[in-house]
Write a structure and sequence with these properties.
single chain, 85 residues, mainly alpha, two-stranded parallel sheet, 2 strands, extended
Length: 85
C-alpha cells in the first residue's frame, strides 16, 4: 500500500497489525513533502474538507454519510481532476 508520511500511517499502534499481515501487504512511504503529482488524493481530501466542512459537527452519522455521498457523487459527475498513471 502506498501511503504518505502522515502520523496515522506511522503510528506504533499499527505495528502489530502490520506484523500480522506482513506476508499480505506492506506500506511503501512516499517521500516527505512530495508534490501532489505523487499524492493526488491530497487535493481530493482538501475539496472534501472544504465542501463538507473540516471540524464541523454533524447531528448524527447518517447526516455525515448523506453529505459525504453528495460530495462524492458530484465529483463522479464532474471530476476535480483526471488522474493518469
Amino acid at each position: 500500500m502506498v501511503v504518505d508520511r502522515s502520523g496515522i500511517h506511522r503510528a506504533h499502534k499499527l505495528d502489530a497489525t502490520l506484523a500480522h499481515y506482513h506476508d499480505k501487504f506492506r506500506f511503501h512511504f512516499l517521500p516527505a513533502h512530495c508534490g501532489h503529482h505523487l499524492n493526488p488524493i491530497e487535493g481530493f481530501w482538501r475539496v472534501m474538507k472544504d465542501t463538507i466542512g473540516a471540524g464541523r459537527c454533524f447531528v448524527d452519522l447518517p447526516l455525515l454519510y448523506q453529505r459525504t455521498r453528495q460530495v462524492l457523487m458530484a465529483h463522479h459527475e464532474r471530476p476535480i481532476y483526471e488522474f493518469h498513471w
